[in-house]
Amino acid sequence: MTNEPSSDHLEALTQQLDAQLQRIQQAAQTVLDATQKAEAIIQQAKQADPAAPLSAAAVADNATAQQVETKTAEPQQAALDLDAVDAPIVLYTDGACSGNPGPGGWGVHGRFGREVRNQQGWSPDTTNNRMEMLAAIHGLEVLPEGTAVELVTDSQYVKNGITKWIHGWKRKGWKKSDGKPVLNMDLWKRLDAASAQRKVKWSWIKGHAGHEGNEMADQLAVNAISQGRSGALEADPAG
């Protein structure tokens, strides 16, 4: 007879694997973003005066101008009439964290038929799991109660937590089998309420595997960290 691992043990292993994977993905994305940004700044400076040397001050001035443009260029999105949406609503959610714990961001790429709506937020001091959860929470909370939606996440922590582990936690008064309080209890309660008030189909996909919606959500989450650090995005109070 073999002993099956407990749900708490599986939860801990899942969190560790998610955290390790996110650290690797975040490091790779940070290097890529920095390289692309540097190339863009250098190219702009060359176009302004191809014969002039690229001084540190010129590069800094271009970077500052780009930050200001990012802060003010985001257009106001028109209200979306869900009654007119004639296709399934799909939300792709993702979280990112630089350090874990550390500065983090969350992103939601929503598809409402032919319409697309994006959301993002950040926190100066958080964890990857909290960002993953807040992405799902914010994505659901903007929808009217009773809305049918598929939520696609690359976090096993979120998917297993809301569909499996949460039932045992609630029976035990939001405690794990060892008697300790559930981590991120505030967000689990909020996600539980948001999910219960809507008809949610929970789906999991592998992150950074070429899924367009997931890649868009990841980009929103990573960019949210940069925007937050530059002052272009206010911190999420629940982060």
UniProtKB/TrEMBL annotation:
GO terms for cellular component: cytoplasm. The keyword Acetylation does not apply. Binds 1 Mg(2+) ion per subunit. May bind a second metal ion at a regulatory site, or after substrate binding. One of its GO terms (biological process) is DNA replication, removal of RNA primer. SUPFAM superfamilies: Ribonuclease H-like. It is an enzyme of class 3 (hydrolase). This is Ribonuclease H. It comes from Magnetococcus massalia (strain MO-1). The lineage of its organism: Bacteria, Pseudomonadati, Pseudomonadota, Magnetococcia, Magnetococcales. The gene is rnhA.
